[in-house]
């Protein structure tokens, strides 16, 4: 299987079906088709790395994904990016200026390299004591794995 890249032109039909089923399970009002590919994916990711460093990544991620999946505003593009940053309680001018620097690009490259080194290939992924769990439906497995390790019961 070949992973989708930011430049992929289309996703297989199963991706939309999976998205619809998962969204319905959680009562999320996703509107398909979701805009893809994303022209400004790198900017969205540089903002996320900065947000993680500063402690507001969860608020930014929730806002930007809601605008992307519900309002169909592509992540990283306007009006999504500035509105998501502002909703997270930050100044879009400051954040976008900082996210456009070489240092921000280097931070994203470092985070991407680190993810690749530990085997992350998709999102969401969870790592517990070096063990990789992929997919939001594996969160409970990752928590259980770590709990067992904490109790001295590997695996």
Keywords summarizing the entry:
54% helix, mainly alpha, 7 helices, two-stranded antiparallel ribbon, disordered N terminus, 155 residues
Explain the layout of strands and helices.
Layout: H1 13-25, H2 41-54, H3 57-69, H4 80-87, H5 92-99, H6 102-117, E1 125-128, E2 131-134, H7 139-150
Helix pairs in contact: 2-3, 2-5, 2-6, 3-4, 4-5
At a glance:
This protein has 155 residues and is mainly alpha-helical.
Enumerate how many helices there are, as a single number.
Answer: 7
Strand content range: 5-15%
Largest sheet: 2 strands, antiparallel
Distance between the terminal alpha carbons, to the nearest Å? 28 Å
What portion of residues is helical? 40-55%
Shape: globular
Q: Note poorly predicted spans.
A: 1-9
Mean pLDDT reading: 86
Oligomer: single chain
Query: Which structural class do you get from the secondary structure elements?
Result: mainly alpha
In sequence order, what are the helices and strands, one letter per element? Answer: HHHHHHEEH
